[in-house]
Amino acid sequence: MADAEAPTSTANAPLADAIALVAGEVDRRFDTLLAIPDDPRADLYRAMRHAAIGGGKRLRPLLTMATADLFGVSRECSLLVGTAIEAIHVYSLIHDDLPAMDDDDMRRGKPTVHKVFGEAAAILAGDCLHALAFEVLADPDTHPDPFVRAELVLDLSRAAGPSGMAGGQMMDLEAEKARFDLATVTRLQQMKTGALISAAVEAGVILGRVAPEGRRSLRGYAHDLGLAFQIADDLLDAEGDEALVGKALRKDAGAGKETFLSLLGVDRAREQCRMLVDQAVEHLHAYGREADLLRAVARYVVDRDR
Amino acid sequence: MADAEAPTSTANAPLADAIALVAGEVDRRFDTLLAIPDDPRADLYRAMRHAAIGGGKRLRPLLTMATADLFGVSRECSLLVGTAIEAIHVYSLIHDDLPAMDDDDMRRGKPTVHKVFGEAAAILAGDCLHALAFEVLADPDTHPDPFVRAELVLDLSRAAGPSGMAGGQMMDLEAEKARFDLATVTRLQQMKTGALISAAVEAGVILGRVAPEGRRSLRGYAHDLGLAFQIADDLLDAEGDEALVGKALRKDAGAGKETFLSLLGVDRAREQCRMLVDQAVEHLHAYGREADLLRAVARYVVDRDR
After folding, report:
1. What SUPFAM superfamilies has UniProt attached to this entry (chains A, B) (predicted)?
2. Could you give the C-alpha distances from B102 to A47, A90, B247, in angstroms and in order?
3. In the predicted model, what is the mean pLDDT of residues B161-187?
4. pLDDT above 60 (res A68)
5. Contacts for B27-33 with beta carbons within 8 Å, 24 or more apart?
6. Where is A111: in which H helix or E strand?
7. Which pLDDT tens digit goes with each residue over B113-141?
8. Quick check: B43 and A174 CB within 8 A?
9. Model pLDDT, residue B6
10. B272-286 average pLDDT score
11. How many domains does chain A have?
12. CA nearest to A165 within chain B
C-alpha cells in the first residue's frame, strides 16, 4: 500500500493507532446517525448515544475494516458496515445489562443505559440500534450492489439471532441453572461472542467479493479469534482490574456458572487462549504484510487488560 | 383471476375466509421457522412460539399478500415476506408488554410472554424475532432477486426503527408525562402503528416491482388505513369487550394520555375513522375487483370488535 494512503488506512499502522483511528471514525458515524431530534424522542436518541459513542475497543469494526482492506475496499464503505455491526454489538450490551438479564450498573466505565435513562428507554434504544444496523446495511449509499447488501444483512441477522448472539445469551442465562460441560460452554461462547466476531470478518470478505475458496482461511481466523477472545474475557473477569475494564468483574464465579475458567483452570485456559491465537494467525499464512493488522489484533486479544 | 386459482388466492374470497387462510399459513410458517431445538435454547423457542403462533388478526401479512396478489406475485413468496413482517409486529408486542413498558399481563387472550417465561426470555425472544425477520427477508429462498431483498430490508428496518415503530413507542411512553396536541398524537400513531402497516403494503408493492408512479395510490391507501386502524384501536380501548379483544382495556384514560379519543371525543373519532376508511378505499379507484380484498380489509378495520 502506498505511503500516501497511510493516514486513511489501518493496514500498516501500529495497532494502537489503528484502534484509535477506527474508534474516532465509528464515533463520528454514530454522531451523524444518532443526531438528536427536536421532538419527544430526544431521550431515546440520548440513550443510544450514551451507549454507542465514546467507548469500547471497537474490535468488530476494526476486524471488518482490516479484512476489507486486504481486498482494496473503500474505507468509507467498510466503516459504514463496521459501524452497523458495532450497533448490533452495542444493542446487545444494552439488553444484556438490563436488570432482568445480567443486571449490570457499569459498562465501559459509565453507568449502564437503564441506570441513566430507565428500563423502557434502554429496551427501546437497543431495539432501535438493532433496526438501524439493518437499515445501514440495506442502504444503497452504503454499497451500490444489492447482492452485497443482501448478503451483509443475511450474515449479520444470522449472527445476531437465535442461532447466534441472542441464542448464546439465552444459553448463558440457562448456565446458572444447569451444569454445562466444556463442549456446551464452547458452543455457547461461539454463539454468544464468536458469531458476531465471525460476522465482522465475514462482512469484510463479502465487501471484498472474495470467492468461496478464498473465504476459508479468514473464517478459520475469525473462528479461533472469537473463542480466544471469550477465554481472555473469562480470564479478565477472574483477574482483571475493574477500573481498567470499566464494568463489574468476578460475576461468573458468584453466579455459579461453568466457564472456560471453571472447567479448565487459569493456567490451562491461558494456554488454550494462546494456542487459539497462534492458530488464528496461522490461518493467515497465505497473506503477506497486508494482514499484519489482523495478526496484531489476534495478539492483542490475549494480552489485553480491558 | 381464474376460478381454478381460487383455493390458493385470497383476492376474491370473502374477508373472513381470507383472514382464516392467511392466519393458518402464517402459523405453519412460524411452526417451521421456530422448531424447538434439543438444547438449552428450548425455552427461548417456546417463548417465541407462544407469542407468534395461534393468535392475532394477521392484518400485516394479509395486507402484504393481498397487495402482492394484485401483481401476480407467487403466494409462497408473499407469505414468507408477510410472516417476516408479522415477526417484527410480534417482537414489538412482546417488548411493549414488558413490566418496564406497558406492563400487560394478557395479549391475544393468553398470558404475555414474560408472565409465562420470565422477563429475560421475553426480551431475548423479541430480539430473536427481530433478527429472524431480516434473515427471512435477506434469504435467497424468499426471493431470487437481491435488489428486491435489499429493498424489503430497507422498507422494514425503517418502519421498525427510531423513525417508525420503536420511535412511536418511545413517544407513547413520553405521552404519559407530556400533554400532546392532535398533530403530535397523529404523528406518534403514524410512527407507532402506521409505519409497519404502510411497510406491509409497501412490501407487496416491492414484490410486485411496481414502478414509482404506480406506488402512490397504494401508499395513500396504507397511510389512511394505518391511521383509521389506530383510531379504531382507541375506540376499542374505550368501548370494547376485554374477553373479545383478549387484553386489558381502558388503559389510556387511566394513564392520563392524550389519544385521538381524548382529543376528539367518541363521536368525532368514529366519524374521523370512517372518513379515513373511505379515503383509503378511494385511493384504490384505479383497481377493479382484484382489489376487493384490500377494500374489505379497510371496512373491517373500522367495524371490528377485537
Report:
1. Terpenoid synthases
2. 19, 24, 12
3. 95
4. yes
5. B27/B53, B27/B54, B29/B79, B29/B80, B29/B83, B30/B83, B30/B86, B30/B87, B33/B83, B33/B132, B33/B136
6. strand A110-111
7. 999 999 999 999 999 999 999 999 999 99
8. yes
9. 38
10. 97
11. 1
12. B128
pLDDT number for residue B9? 47
Among A153, A180, A209, most B C-beta atoms within 10 A, so best to mutate, is A153
- Burial of residue A181 (CB within 10 Å: 0-12, 13-18, 19+) is exposed
**B151: nearest CA partner in chain A:** A138
pLDDT tens profile A217-263 = 999 999 999 999 999 999 998 888 888 888 888 787 777 788 899 99
Chain B's closest residue to A140, CA to CA, is B150
Q: Residue A132: its chain B contacts at CB < 8 A?
A: 157, 161-162
> Which residues of chain B lie closer than 8 angstroms to A162, CB-CB?
41, 44-45, 48, 128, 131-132
Query: A134, A149, A187: which to substitute to probe chain B, counting the most B Cβ within 10 Å?
Result: A134
pLDDT band with cut points at 50, 70 and 90 for residue B302: confident
CATH code of the domain containing B28: 1.10.600.10
- Does the residue B14 lie in any domain? yes
Mutate to test the interface with B, among A154, A176, A181, A187 (most CBs of B within 10 A): A154
The residue in chain A having the minimum alpha-carbon distance to the alpha carbon of residue B188 is A40
A263 occurs within a structural domain: yes
Rounded to an integer, the average pLDDT of A75-102 is 98
- Residue A61's pLDDT is 98
| Res. A173: pLDDT tops 80 | yes
Residue B128 placed within a domain: yes
Predicted local distance difference test score (pLDDT) of residue B12 = 44
Please give, rounded to a whole number of angstroms, the shortest distance from the CA of B167 to a CA of chain A. Answer: 6
Minimal Cβ distance to A134: which of B146, B151, B157: B157
Residue B33 to residues A143, A163, B1, B7, B133, Cα–Cα distance (Å): 30, 12, 31, 24, 10
Cell, residue A169: 445469551
Which residues constitute the domain of residue A236?
A: 15-303
A90 domain residue, yes or no: yes
ipTM above 0.90, yes or no: yes
- For residue B176, the model assigns a pLDDT of 87
User: What is residue A245's predicted lDDT score, i.e. its pLDDT?
Assistant: 82
